[in-house]
Every structure is written in C-alpha cells, then in structure tokens.
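User: Can you recover a sequence for this backbone? Please restate the input before giving your answer.

Assistant: Of course. Working from this structure:
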C-alpha cells in the first residue's frame, strides 16, 4: 500500500478532491491518505509560502502528493505555492496529456492526442530580476545542461513507456543561441540514443502555430519552462477545455499531481465543478505508483461517462450532452462505469506505464575556459553613442580596448544608425588588444578607472571561450 499526501485546497478544491478520491478508492486504489492543509488559510495565518513547515515533512516522507487547486490571496508578498513546491522538491518535469474526446466534448481537433512535457525549474522562472537603470529592468534566463538533459531524456523515456512514436522539441534558438541553443543541442544529442522514436525540432513560433492548427501531427512535445507554461494551456483548451486536463510534476525523489485549472472560487460549495482535471492528475499518479490496472480502470470509466453524455455544466452542450450533473453525481456515474470501457472513443491501455527511472546526471569534465573580454553595462543619460565611446576609450586600461557598444542588444557603435532608439542602458564590450591576454585584473582596473571618472557601471558580464569556442552572443548587427 502506498501512503500519499493529499491537500484539498481552496474554492472548488475540497469538492473535486472528494469526488476524485471516491472514484479512485472505489476502483481499488491501494492507498493510505495523509491530509495536510495548504493555501489561503495558511497564507492568511502569516505563512507567505502557503504551507506550514510540518507539511513539508509529510510531503517529503510520503513522496507522492495529490494537490487540489488553491487560492493565492490578492496583494503582495505571497509566493506561489506551486512554483515553491516544484523547486524545493526538484520536480523538474511537468507532464500534461491533452487528448480530445470528440464528438462528446466540443473541439475543432477531433484527432488530437498530445503530451506536453515542460521543463519545470529553470528558464525565466528562476525569478532573478533587477531594475538596472531608470529605464531598464532585466530578468535572467538560466538554462543548464543538467536541466536540459533531464527533461529531454524524460520525454524520450516517456514516449517509450507510453507507446508514443515521436518527440518534438520547440525552442527559439534562432534568436537565443546560447540558452535555447543548449536545449536544442541536448535534444539532438539525446535523440540519437532513441533511434526507435522519431524526433524533430521546430522554432517555437511556427511550431506553436502548427500545434494550434493541426495538433494531430504532434505526439510528445518537449520545451523549456515558459513556452511550456503557455502552450500546455493552449493545448488543453483546444483539446476541449482546461477543466479536463491534469498534470504530473515529477522529480527524482518526489512527485506532485494536480488539475491544471485554479480554485474557481465563484463555483465553490455549489456541487457544480467538474472533477475531471484532478481525476486526470490522479490517474497519472496511479500510473506513477505502479497501480496501472486501477489507473486504466478509472480512465476507461471516465471516458465512458463522458461518452454517455453525463456532463458537468462547463462541458454540457445541448444536442451533444444527455444529462447535466453536479460534481457528486458525475463521480457516482464514473463509479458506476468502473469495469466498463468506452465504445466509440478508444479505451486506454497502460500496460507499460510506470514511474520512469532515469539515470542520474553525470557531470562532464570541465572544459578549458578562457577569459576573452568583458561587457560592462553602464547607465548613461546621453543619446549619442559616439560621445560615450569617446569617454570610455579615454579611460580604458592599456592592453584592453572598447570594441563595441550596444543598446538593448543592437550595435550602436561603431557605425550605428541614427534611427536606432536608445535607452539609458548601454552594454560596452571590451576586448584585449591584439597579442595580449585578458585577465580579471584588467576588469578590476577598468571598473576602478570608470568609477574615478564618474561612469555609472551597473554590472559586468565576463566573456568566455570554452574549449576555444566563443560562448557569448554577438551584438545585433555586428
Ligand atoms: P480558474 O482556473 O480557477 O478559473 C477559470 C475559469 O474556469 C472560471 O470561469 C472557473 O469557473 C472555470 N473552472 C475552472 N475549473 C473548473 C472546474 N473544475 N469545473 C468547472 N469550471 C471550472 O482560474 P482563475 O479564476 O484565474 O483563478 C482562481 C484562483 O485559482 C486564483 O486564486 C488563482 O491564483 C488560483 N489558481 C490556482 C492554481 C493551482 O493551485 N494549481 C492554478 C491556477 C490558478
């Protein structure tokens, strides 16, 4: 028997959790349940992350967490419980299956059956943001090799375990050559280890357009965090409704399962909400726990119930639906269908489904790292980059010279365009004079002289070559 942690959450949470637990326990799920409280009450009691310290112990002990949606109170200072949980527990993989239930749930895409696998810990979600000048703020996009390897390998292993034929990767590496470039490169490397599974890469813009237009051409899609956040909601919505989708957040030790929708406070306490999203999360959980037969039984009974036209208000459509029911009645209908299979829609089979055990990430030997320059960012109120260049060339240390100035990435010196709009945020690139080697001492000297001449430096970024290969972006137009 598995012990799981359950949080009933806020709004419609308790109703859909009760319905979900009733269904899976009636199907024979072998579970012991330990309940914790998370969400609104915990936030309002003064806990800014929405969860008490003792609850972390329960979650970490049981390792599997089924969570209903919560309400994050309005106002500043409250941190997202979801983001905190994913990061604290290292839940690097977010898995969202989105399949249409045509003709029983309205969709423009009757043959859609895709799984979005989203990297869950990195990218712009590191939440490292700074205001640097009066006019400019920044958010750091961090992508790591272990992060990419883990999520890409997870996608291919998932495809194998769940009988999927193709893994597609979406990135924007034509623009972000370092960050998205690494994700794409790792995808190419790992794809070679899975010759039995087809692979392809699309630039995210056209890839997303194709996914929204002809989702039936996709199978498993893997992508970095932000793109996955946006596109997994799009995928769920075009499959039928965000209210029908569940998701798994998987880590090396722990896992969290949930619906993708929120706590729908306006529907709370009225026996109206659709429990399907959370039930889908619970099916992913049962497969993760190795209780495949129960998962299969629940899923087939759920599809049969949808096929029978027994629908909650959000899915109900005159002419398609047969009976409009509440949360409890929907759960009872699914329970009555346990052991039955759908007749029009395809029944599921989870024979190979299991918790995926991936090899631990192996750190490679470090590359030869060489300092080849520095970008010094400065706040400067002027408008003519030639003036700034003149100021900086006047104070550069011997052996180091100003090679370029950009404004928001676009080269403005030397040979900039007058038309280019400039803010007060300038990146000034210094490189060693031919024949000299750049050192950190040069950077210290540069900053110190700049300070002495009232140049407002706001940060530096070292420029490196790894194993002789330049590892930073050029200026746009350089
Ligand atoms: P929501 O998903 O709660 O609701 C969006 C719309 O969908 C509403 O019209 C709602 O009535 C409907 N809806 C959602 N789930 C439904 C269901 N199961 N059955 C029937 N109808 C359903 O999004 P929101 O209104 O933007 O957010 C409400 C609260 O939920 C906020 O406090 C937000 O922070 C929180 N939230 C929590 C999570 C989570 O815990 N995972 C995720 C998203 C939002």
């Amino acid at each position: 028997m598995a012990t799981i942690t359950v949080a009933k959450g806020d709004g419609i949470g308790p109703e859909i959790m009760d319905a979900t637990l009733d269904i899976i326990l009636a199907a024979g799920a072998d579970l012991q349940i330990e309940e914790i409280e998370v969400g609104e009450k915990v936030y309002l009691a003064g806990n800014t992350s929405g969860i008490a310290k003792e609850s972390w112990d329960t979650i970490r002990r049981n390792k599997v967490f089924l969570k209903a949606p919560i309400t994050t109170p309005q106002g500043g200072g409250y941190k997202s419980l979801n983001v905190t949980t994913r990061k604290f527990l290292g839940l690097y993989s977010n898995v969202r299956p989105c399949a249409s239930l045509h003709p029983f749930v309205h969709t423009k895409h009757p043959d859609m059956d895709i799984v979005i696998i989203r990297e869950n810990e990195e990218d712009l979600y590191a939440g490292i943001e700074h205001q640097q000048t009066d006019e400019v703020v920044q958010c750091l996009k961090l992508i790591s090799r272990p992060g990419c390897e883990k999520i890409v390998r997870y996608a291919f292993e998932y495809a194998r375990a769940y009988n999927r034929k193709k893994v597609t990767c979406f990135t924007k590496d034509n623009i972000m050559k370092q960050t998205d470039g690494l994700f794409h490169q790792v995808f190419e490397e790992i794809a070679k280890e899975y010759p039995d599974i087809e692979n392809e890469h699309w630039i995210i813009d056209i890839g997303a357009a194709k996914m929204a237009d002809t989702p039936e051409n996709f199978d498993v899609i893997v992508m970095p965090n932000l793109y996955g956040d946006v596109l997994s909601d799009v995928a769920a919505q075009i499959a039928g409704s965000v209210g029908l989708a569940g998701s798994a957040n998987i880590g090396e030790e722990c896992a969290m399962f949930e619906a993708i929708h929120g706590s729908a406070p306006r529907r709370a306490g009225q026996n109206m909400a659709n429990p399907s999203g959370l039930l889908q999360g619970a099916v992913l959980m049962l497969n993760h726990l190795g209780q495949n037969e129960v998962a299969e039984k629940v899923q087939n009974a759920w599809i049969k119930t949808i096929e029978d036209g027994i629908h909650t208000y959000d899915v109900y459509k005159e002419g398609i639906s047969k009976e409009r029911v509440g949360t409890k009645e929907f759960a009872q209908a699914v329970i009555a269908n346990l052991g039955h299979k759908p007749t029009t829609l395809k029944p599921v089979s989870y024979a190979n489904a299991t918790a995926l055990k991936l090899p631990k990430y192996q750190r490679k030997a470090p590359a030869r790292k060489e300092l080849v320059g520095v970008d010094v960012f400065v706040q400067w109120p002027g408008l003519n980059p030639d003036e700034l260049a003149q100021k900086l060339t006047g104070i550069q240390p011997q052996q180091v010279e100003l090679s370029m100035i950009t404004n928001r990435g676009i080269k403005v010196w030397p040979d900039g365009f007058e038309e280019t709009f400039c803010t007060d945020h300038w990146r000034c690139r210094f490189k060693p004079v031919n024949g000299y080697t750049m050192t950190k001492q040069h950077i210290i000297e540069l900053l110190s002289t700049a300070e002495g001449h009232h140049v407002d430096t706001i940060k530096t970024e070292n420029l490196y070559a790894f194993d002789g290969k330049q590892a930073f972006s050029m200026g746009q137009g350089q």
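That completes the design. The two ends are 62 Å apart (CA to CA).
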